[in-house]
Specification:
The structure holds two protein chains of two kinds. Chain A has helices at residues 98-106, 120-134, 139-152, 165-191, and strands spanning 26-27, 34-39, 74-75, 82-83, 89-91, 94-96, 116-118. By secondary structure, chain A is α+β, with helices and mostly antiparallel strands. By secondary structure, chain B is α+β, with helices and mostly antiparallel strands. Chain B has nine helices and seven strands; from the N terminus they run E-E-E-E-E-H-H-E-E-H-H-H-H-H-H-H. In chain B, the strands form two sheets. Chain B has a four-stranded antiparallel beta sheet, with helices on one face. Chain B starts with 8 loop residues before the first strand and ends in a 14-residue tail after the last helix. The chains are: A alpha+beta, B alpha+beta. Chains A and B meet through strand 2, strand 7 and helix 2 of A and strand 3, strand 4, strand 5, strand 6 and helix 3 of B.
């Protein structure tokens, strides 16, 4: 595969060395676009060849759990199974087996594999707040929905970066209860 | 080492915005907010090869357009009776122009690793991108054992980037069949807006106004229900967009109506009476016509798309060719 050059973001032409790591944007020699480029040692690191694992030389040597004829190179840090070089997965500096990674992803035990989360706190808050501004007449439907979502998913994991999940649930519940109280008062008044 | 939650520092992107960039101890987190769900992509410092930024003309174009709009509106003030309305629009335009000027020129930013090149959408301003790169540089160089030396750069021996994988290695979300019954009710409610609007125009009774309000409330409720029901369903994308359009247009025209009433109150006049408005006030008439047109268009398009989807879903699968039991 042909090595790539440090390329301009707009025209993909190669940039000279003087255009790299500049304190301010400099014009690209080809298209004139003001560019700022920062490169790091990983760009020049040759790709490491993956190892398929060594075969067992003698019967006394420990073998891989998944490939019994291959020599064990390390042990999984979660389950302790012996792993050959092929099965050994470098997971953020830890040596894990594919089975533990798959189980960790399914049971949400490995946070760095967590790449999608439902925001039930946002859903409950939207159900409680939005109808008040869009059309207040639907609040007698959306208020109970907001309370259900808040209670049902109270312990569900929230956003990775936001810390106000419980606060949003509480606000949604309070606002929804207030809406239902108002509806009850309207109905009671019309009946009396 | 796995990072626990709540250890992130925001680098770029606004709270509640669609894309944002966060900094953790050993990686960058690119967050995509889809209102009721979030998606995450992590870039570990030891894997980052290059970060590139290029200035664009987007912010400059927006500034020019907003300035032209402000000048146009300001020039029209002497010729308009109710100038307060124009004043509100000029203030709104200034509200967008001033922050755009303060934020500075726009840019695009890409991050490269050994297997991908990703557009960092939260870094849309040149000054912010420069600050973030300066902040990340010591962290990345520490993770990679030092900076890229002049000899490395001069050698030009750059590691080739791996070709993009054929399919994304993500677990597909289960798709369920949806009959679209809530959508059907919503589309008929949208079509009902036309006769109700005509009747309200011809007959000045308050009952038709009340019916219109009920129709609006029901449309909003069914639009929300349709949006919730169509998540992860097999409904076609154009059909899924219609409840969203109905909801947005209802919110927009509601806000526009409130804004129009507010303008009259600020000016010290009473807002036009709903019943007399059709004949006397062109603004409410135009808003009603546009709103009804949007509703009818959504209703018709929705019914057609839903019928097309149902007929496609009801078609039997193609029969296998050749006699049974014989290999093909």
């Amino acid at each position: 595969m042909k090595p790539a050059a440090i390329a301009c973001l707009r025209c993909r032409a190669g940039l000279p060395q003087t255009a790299v790591h500049t304190p301010a944007p400099v014009p690209c020699p080809a298209c004139g676009a003001m560019t700022l480029t920062a490169v790091y040692p990983a760009l020049f690191r040759p790709p490491t060849a993956a190892s398929a694992g060594e075969l067992l030389a003698t019967e006394e040597e420990a073998g891989c759990f998944y490939h019994p004829r291959k020599k064990a190179a390390t042990a999984c840090e979660l389950c302790g199974r012996f792993l050959c070089a092929l099965c050994d997965v470098d997971f953020n500096g830890r040596h894990l087996c594919p089975g533990c990674i798959e189980r960790g992803a399914k049971k949400e035990q490995l946070p760095t594999l967590d790449n999608h989360r439902m925001l039930y706190d946002g859903t409950a808050l939207a159900l409680a707040v939005l109808p008040v501004f869009l059309c207040v007449f639907v609040t007698f439907i959306t208020a109970p929905m907001a309370i259900y979502v808040a209670v049902r998913y109270w312990n569900a994991p929230g956003s990775l970066v936001r810390r106000t999940q419980k606060l949003r649930f509480v606000f949604a519940i309070l606002l929804s209860v207030a809406q239902l109280v108002v509806w009850a008062a309207i109905v009671a008044r019309s009946l009396l | 080492m796995a990072t626990t939650s709540h250890n992130y520092t925001r680098l770029a992107g606004t709270r509640g915005g669609i894309h944002s960039l966060w900094l953790a101890g050993d990686h960058l987190l690119l967050l995509s907010n889809h209102s009721f769900s979030e998606e995450y992509r992590r870039f570990f410092f030891r894997d980052i090869q290059q970060i590139s930024v290029a200035k664009t003309q987007g912010a400059t174009i927006v500034n020019i357009v907003l300035c032209a709009l402000i000048l146009l509106l300001a020039g029209a003030i002497p010729f308009v009776e109710v100038w307060q309305g124009l004043g509100v629009w000029i203030a709104l335009a200034l509200l967008f122009l001033l922050p755009n000027l303060l934020k500075g020129p726009s840019c695009i930013c890409e991050l490269r690793t050994a297997v991908q090149t990703v557009n960092l959408k939260p870094l849309r301003r040149l000054r912010r991108a420069q600050r973030v790169i300066a902040q990340l540089r010591p962290l990345i160089e520490t993770a990679q054992g030092g900076p890229a030396t002049a000899e490395m750069i001069a050698s030009g021996q750059i590691a080739p980037q791996a070709p993009a994988p054929a399919a994304a290695a993500t677990v597909p979300r289960p798709v369920r069949h949806c009959r679209g019954r809530i959508h059907l009710v919503l589309f008929w409610l949208c079509l009902a807006d036309l006769p109700l609007t005509i009747l309200a125009y011809l007959n000045q009774s308050g009952w038709f106004t009340a019916l219109s309000m009920i129709q609006l409330a029901a449309s909003v409720g069914f639009a929300i229900a349709a949006i919730v029901q169509q998540q992860n369903s097999d409904l076609p994308s154009p059909l899924k967009r219609i409840p969203i359009i109905v909801l947005i247009s209802a919110g927009f025209f509601f806000a526009a109506s409130m804004g129009y009433v507010f303008v009259f109150l600020v000016a010290g006049h009473l807002p036009p009476d709903q019943h007399a408005a059709w004949r006397g006030d062109p603004v409410t008439l135009v808003m009603s016509v546009i709103s009804t047109t949007v509703n009818v268009a959504c209703g018709l398009a929705g019914l057609v798309l839903r019928e097309r989807y149902r007929s496609t879903a009801a078609m039997p699968p193609p029969a296998p060719t050749g006699p049974p039991g014989k290999p093909q």
